[in-house]
UniProtKB/TrEMBL annotation, chains A, B:
Gene field: cofE
GO molecular function: coenzyme F420-0:L-glutamate ligase activity
NCBIfam families named in the record: F420_cofE
Top EC class for this record: ligase
Keywords, alphabetical: GTP-binding, Ligase, Magnesium, Manganese, Metal-binding, Nucleotide-binding, Potassium
EC number annotated for this UniProt entry: 6.3.2.31
Coiled coil: none
Name of this protein: Coenzyme F420-0:L-glutamate ligase
Length: 257, 257
């Protein structure tokens, strides 16, 4: 007797360091081909946010940032570099919480997250320590464009998720979520499906792309390992495709911001 | 060239419906043996909360619940069954948010969650519609006991996670998290690990068991599928084991309750 259902999470080895204007779809395609992995139609390609941002030129030299009076004042309160705070504020629509060392904002895309996703690690060599990396301008759009390229290259309708590590309310430790997605239901509505006893399921809208993002993160690892492209294979889902923006709870229905 | 790293998520088929006082470790062991899966030392057994709760007799007949005046008043405001609200309040230390249809509490174990995890779906046959299932009394303890039994049965030091679907602040859709764990670092501290360029990682404490819980949820599925036991194979981790209680952010450092 065999397991009835299994999912594989495969790291694509040998993805080079990504730089501005690199053709990311090509780098991924070549990496996959070198690995011997043959993509299938149900494969979900999960890409670390940092490689998408880097290819899209979202690296900013902090020396070019002129902090506003607001950024300087806030930076003093929370003990951060005023130029970094300026970048964070520029990426945000409002500050949700701040205290020394912590700045949680509502990102312009609706994500409630630390530092608007602006990241100083894994973005530059030690010779260039003054850079920071912003989220992609439009991660759902990036995912859709990359999906089209990968679909075209491999001839099968793969899905794409761009993931990033987020802190959470109420729980310690980061957990990866989907900030961009194409080709699958990011938010999956199971309402109306019967439960084991034919009663309608009660809690039945799942953050499907977020669970895939978290699963991929287990293989991507952190730090020196650097495996920013992962394929999640063998998933089944139902419902129509929707983007990662569907995972953002609108402010009007949010009780915690 | 082969993928350098991969993780498999295997559903254990044929786990029977679990009832009070069932020997859950034996049911899981027998299911695994029938499946042909041979457990390895790095396997993480992820168990759906509902089967642990059921085996531990945490099903409550609503007809036996006498709602307090407080429960009756709150139930009127939020339009829920007063007996269910009584159960939720009995499992909680305080109400965090309430509005019609929504009751978010701090569970006695510290989890900030809807309905204190009290679940009416997938818990009874249509002939017995008046029951509700509570979380295990001590999910970390349950995970540790089950781990010991599975380790003994299979001769390898497997890890165990008990998962449950939680709603999140700021994001739509549920995502599974770990409510109990044994044999692995639930909260994994990567501080001090160098990033790709030798700089210390900035965001580097991960909710490791939560990411595993979410990954397993992709295979467990929902509703009629009923695959409550999943093995996550091929993970590597570092650091000392700690329980799922480590994932609960203490109220004193929480900015959102």
């Amino acid at each position: 007797m065999k397991p009835v259902k299994s999912v594989e999470i495969l790291a694509v080895p040998g993805i080079p360091l990504v730089r501005k204007d690199d053709d990311l779809a090509r780098l991924i395609g070549e990496g996959v081909e070198r690995s011997g992995i043959v993509p299938r139609g149900d494969d979900v390609f999960v890409l670390a946010q940092k490689i998408v941002s880097k290819a899209e030129g979202r690296m900013v030299d902090l020396a070019t940032v002129e902090p506003s009076a607001e950024a300087i004042e806030l930076a003093g309160k929370i003990q951060k570099d005023p130029r970094l705070v300026q970048l964070i504020l520029s990426e945000s629509v409002r500050v949700v919480r701040s205290r020394p060392g912590v700045l949680i904002v509502e990102h312009r895309l609706g994500f409630v997250m630390a530092n608007a996703g602006v990241d100083q690690s894994n973005v530059a060599s030690p010779d260039e320590p003054q850079r920071a990396l912003l989220l992609p301008i439009d991660p759902d759009g990036s995912a859709a464009r990359l999906r089209e390229r990968l679909w075209s290259r491999f001839g099968v309708p793969v899905a794409v998720i761009i993931n990033d590590s987020f802190g959470r309310a109420w729980r310690r430790g980061t957990c990866s979520v989907a900030i961009g997605a194409a080709g699958l239901p990011s938010l999956m509505d199971l309402r109306g499906m019967p439960d084991l006893f034919g009663r309608e399921l009660q809690v039945s809208i799942t953050g499907h792309a977020d669970e895939i993002a978290a699963a991929a993160s287990l293989v991507m690892g952190q730090g020196a390992e650097g495996l920013p492209v992962v394929i999640v294979r063998g998933l089944t889902w139902r419902g129509t495709d929707n983007t990662a923006s569907e995972l953002v709870r609108p402010a009007a229905e949010d009780m915690f911001r």
